[in-house]
User: What shape does this take?
Amino acid sequence: MEPLDPDVCYRALTTRDPRFDGRLFVAVTSTGIYCRPVCPARTPKRENCQFHASAASAQEAGFRPCLRCRPETAPDLASWRGTSNTVSRALALIAEGALDGGEAGVEALAERLGVGDRQLRRLFRQHLGATPVAVAQTRRVLFAKQLIQETRMPLAQVALASGFGSIRRFNETFQALYARPPGELRRKQATSAPQAADAGVTLRLRYRPPYDWRAMLDYLSARAIDGVEEVSDTRYRRTVAQEDGVGTVEVTHEPARDNLVVTVQVSRVEALPTLVARVRRVFDVGADIETIGAHLSRDPFLAPLVALRPGLRAPGAWDGFELAVRAILGQQVTVEAARRLAGKLVALCSETRPTGRPLSCVFPSAARVAAADLGPLGMPSARKAALKALAEAALADPLLFHPFGTVEEGISRLRAIRGVGEWTAQYIALRALRETDAFPASDVALLRSAADDDGARPTPEALLVRSEPWRPWRAYAAQHLWAADPGPRLLEARHG
Assistant: This one.
């Protein structure tokens, strides 16, 4: 990431430019507070301003979050992607708890990413202005503050949900950072308004507009598994596996406020950070869509596609194993056929059984699939064998569907699984590993959309060459090509 230009940053602050929200944070030395550039407070003097690339950087420098503009609600942009994929992957893992153990976990995190721990710290300093542990701690505090201000969860549950080891540590952190106990940060309306016992926890996730909500719902609707997912014109719902039953997650859109509204109903509040991270991944909340669109629009072929769908996101996977199973089920069949096969697999292997309610099943675990007789699925034996091999690989390596090393190393690890060819590995990398440069060049829909004016399709090899200028955002280029495909919804794989 290029160093922040103080003059540009100050102009963004004085004009309250929303394009910089999430890209920088303003620390005011005269007050000891850091803000978003859109903060409604009076503009501080230029000589009193410091500019930071992340909230963690400002907090590590000794500043406390502003109570008016609420830095925890800023868009969580992934603008460093393309400069450091390592940082991007690390942040995704931190969001799912990779550094809950503190400094001791940095070495293990670095090993998973294929770099040394010193190199990882250097990259974080370079791109975010803070150490990995500081980033994890800041995220924990800001998530706790969001729970305090947007929900009516008891404070003890807030501490537990946001990853604090004890109530005492939770109280001490907020006293030190905000100079007041956490209870004083709770809005009055959050404690007085009535709430049904089963209403769940509702949070808002801010994104950088534009956001093509219709395209996202269309993608999810076409693949919704009966009993596991439910998609309407306005919302997405799915089940969540729990030790004591089935929980749910619901996502709706609040376009006037550039928010996704997430309602989670689970019995264990400790699961909240992971579930919120999964919603961010599925709905691609962190995409810096303006930067991506500007880059892809340099190509004369892609420019009109981007202009047609400026807010198009690259949907992610709720779970890596689930996505990989869907990819194998979708080899050489239509999206609808793959959806029906997934429904059969759930009915065959799910730990819960249909109850007549719309959402009553959870997607089966790798252990359930590995132990099941897949004969009733009515699939070719090669694909049934591939499902078994996939399940066994997932059981042998719990981190199989997490970023590990370089993109190429991740693809190689996936291709080592029987029945996972280049297309399937690239598709898993795109949706589950969230590799922004993954590109399944042999996909028939991509080849159709990339045809020339005479209708002649390129070869996969030619499309790979053509895609070089689209780096490091080829996953988004693929999404635009898929959206423009006029042909039948067919997933085609070439196995190596």
The two ends are 37 Å apart (CA to CA).
